[in-house]
Amino acid sequence: MPPKRKSEYKPEYSKKFQGIRKGKDTFHAHCIPCNDEISLTSIGKHAITLHQKTSKHIQNARVINI
Ligand SMILES: [Zn+2]
Questions:
Q1: Using alpha carbons only, what angle is made at residue 51 by residues 2 and 11, rounded to the nearest 5 degrees?
Q2: What's the superkingdom here (predicted)?
Q3: What is the pTM assigned to this prediction?
């Protein structure tokens, strides 16, 4: 089995996605309104897209008005 290539956080994500910063390491994004770490290792930035569609995130984002 060849090793899977891991997706890393890119600085452009903080511009592309509201409320997103670099996470605890290069393989995580941090969601500010949810105070959550989003793992990017398997599906990359798609994980952020999916996270931002969750009702939890939508609620949290609404509270801090971003
Ligand atoms: Zn969130």
A1: 70
A2: Eukaryota
A3: 0.86
Please answer whether residues 45 and 58 qualify as being in contact, where contact means their C-beta atoms are separated by less than 8 angstroms.
Answer: no
- As a whole number of angstroms, the distance between CA 25 and CA 33 comes to 19
How many whole angstroms from 46 Cα to the centroid of ligand 1? 13
Distance 5 CA to ligand 1 centre (A): 25
**Plot region of 44 (φ>0 → left; ψ -120 to 50 → alpha; else → beta):** left
DSSP H or E segment with residue 22: strand 20-22
pLDDT, one tens digit per residue, over 3-55 is 567 899 999 999 999 999 999 999 999 999 999 999 999 999 999 999 999 99
pLDDT of res. 57 = 96
- Residue 4 C-alpha to ligand 1 middle, in angstroms? 26
